[in-house]
Please model this.
Amino acid sequence: MKVKIHLDVNGYRYEEEVDPRLTLLELLREDLELTGTKEGCGMGECGACTVLLDGRPVKSCILLAVQANGRKVTTIEGVEHPDGTLHPIQQAFIDYGAIQCGFCTPGMVLTAKALLEENPTPTEREVRRAISGNLCRCTGYQKIVEAILACGERKTVTVVGEGLNRISKKGS
Amino acid sequence: MTIDPFLIVGKRYPRIDSKDKVTGRTKYLDDLKFPGMLHGKVLRSPYPHARILRIETARAERLPGVRAVVTIEDTPRVPFGSYRSGVKDELIFAMEKVRYVGDEVAAVAAIDEETALEALDLIEVDYEPLPALLSIDEAMKPDAVRIHDDAEGNIASHTVTVRGNPEKGFEEADLVLEDRFETPLQIHGYLEPVGCIAAWDASGRLTIWAPSQNPSWSRIIFSEALNVPIGRLRVIQTFIGGAFGGKLEQKLYLIAAVLAQKAKKPVKMVNTRDEEFQTSMPRVPMRIDLRMGVRKDGLLTAKEHRIFADNGAYTKYASAVVNLGTYRVDGLYRLRNIRNENFLIYTNKLPTSAFRGFGNPQITFAMESMLDHLAEGIGMDPLDLRLRNAAEPGDITAHGFHYISCGLKECFKQVSEAIEWKRKRSQKGSGRGLGISATSHVCGNRSFFPLFDGATAYVRIDEGGNVKVITGEVEVGQGLLTAYATIVAETLGVMPRMVTVEPPDTDVAPFGLGTWGDRGTFIGGAAVKLAAAEARKELLAVASEMLEADPSDLDCKEGKVFVKGSPEKGLPFHEVAATAVYTRGGAPILGKGTFIPNSEIADSTRYGNVSGAYAFGAQAAEVEVDEETGRIRLVEVVAAHDVGRALNRTTTEGQIEGATVQGIGYALFEEVEFAEGVMLNPDYLNYRVPTALDVPPITSLIVETIDPAGPFGAKGVAEPAMTPTAPAIANAIYNATGVRIKRLPITPEKVLGSLRKTKV
Model:
């Protein structure tokens, strides 16, 4: 038995006939071919599959596609502006070196986006708490935290030239 | 003030792969699909040790949607092993016996994953359980059954190494200490599960797409196991979502190849997280009996260790880990009288193997813990004891390592100043403590891969001015592609974003040994630099005709080629590149570079200068321990690493920070636990990988010693940065509480238990 659902993904409307057991992650990755959302554990523990559901971060591997019926989903593919300009958080992740293998990055960016929309000037503790459901095994989190904090303070990151030593840290 | 001669090297340019990664465009293995592709799943043993009496696959084969069911009967049955081990104790599937919970028994390829899983349930296997040997002690009992028929006493390897005169060394000591240390089974925990796609073409040529850390090298082993000539096998590396030593040769790739051959369709296989925990190749647990002697004046006189290491059921790289990985520490301090004995023991648990640090975190934890007690025993500051014995440039270690560049003492100086060692160590009684520790590591290892050491790269410039680096070396997330782009950009005078570097395809790339042993930047980077220099020479030769000037009078910088002193009259880089192609029959500019480090294969006693350079580091930690609860709060970690030269400061810091946090996990949280051979915590909820809330600020200090052989002086840093963290934390806890925990991880329960004992 299939269930008919309609949902908005990154500003596009979709009508899909889905198996009621299909997860939102499977719908996104397999049916809609939006592979930017990653599966790290399939059990809601690592956060790699984080997407925004009506602006709130959710773990799409433990959410059913039918639960997204009538709602608005944002994946990493929907974060940059339609003209290709990166979202300030994406730019900050690049500038601050908050990316290594990149597998946690989409989920991390979406969690950060939700945080900053709710709390534009978070403290370090608030940032760490917000991303504590998103595991990263490469970076040790420090540069991710710095990127999110910088975004919070500055709202937008000014891109100067090619990035020559443009990051100055407190005390250095 | 010195003038920085570099435009790109040592700066903070963004990683060249970061824009694709931050927008979700990077394709990892699981993001790929091919028309007609099938999905494979593995049937694994539920027993730690059992005889296989019967396997019946007929029902599974009849299930609609199933395209192939395979067992050992469908494989060539050629025993194979990891290249270096010399032990060939594995087959593609279990034959006659299963040896651990998770051992591969059969596999299915079906039109979708669900059908494949359903078919697994229809395979009937009758087992006769055998006594399971779940610990080193059980496996070494005289009457223990053999896990492998030819391994007497369940010993996979046993080595003894003696240098100098250990007996005399211990006699000369004023204080000799002896103790036992134990290290846990740590899981790599990379976020991207292992996966692959295997496909055969009509002429019998196999292609494997996989996040492989060593595509060229793994081809040798795959060819052996599948009985297919190397030339009929192609490995295409996909972008890797973290590896840390865990994505060397995987049996899954072979199983996919066998399924794809039988089904005549491409087959994709991806591990579940549960499979990642239960069947990946995690860090080798060790029990280390260590004995060290020191004179009153602080000179270390002798060291002896006996290691019992848990190999698990099959020999992957654990023999190299225990034999090539645990003796490096002897050159960290100037030890001359040494006796090392290593036993690698089979048990009925998952096979263990390579993980960042490769044996060094285990033995360094033991030695650096003991150094604090030796210092205490002779009334010396632990930092001073270390400085008294620390390696220096020019040293030839007891095992024959030649240290050319060595910034160990500078690392100690910088960490101790940054953490205010002298001041804080003298303040006692606040529940706070400081600890310090160090590490030395190789940058490549001639002994690890017997065929050759070195790397080759091509730098190709097309008519559009696109600069491409073709390498067989591997980006695992550490930033290697960006390091190579940096080297090329600096040499050719272009911006890093003009340079593209992609994961290797063995049909195109030169043989790359891959990412392990901290070799990627030092060896691979040196090859890239030579290739870039060749390309530059060709570029200037073409430009010299265009500018009617001698090539030696030309320079290229900021995207232009010009006569020295007159950059304003220069030619755009891409114009020279186009002229090169259009005037030379379509030939792009192509530089080839080969770098062979000054390294040698160690002799039969493991003596020899196995690496062309050595990396060093020191870390200090400050902790606060709640003596009521045993709770440990990590206040700060300071990490100073001799990286030769940082090619990119941001990515270098990123390596130090990330490695340190893995070290924090090793110190405080991470341990796989078993009951009756079954893993109790095979998931991220019960196995604690540090989260953003678990880690303190990490201060990374970059020490630059400019190694003469490294590209622009660079050495490695990814591996050594994980090693000193756990002992630094253990020493800080001892300093805070007087409690010495000798078995990692250091949990509040252990601290509290020991505190209670000391108070009684």
In short: Helices of chain A lie at 24-31, 88-95, 105-118, 124-130, 142-154. Chain A has a mean pLDDT of 90. The domain at 3-78 of chain A is CATH 3.10.20.30 (Ubiquitin-like (UB roll)). Residues 105-118 of chain A form the longest helix (14 residues).
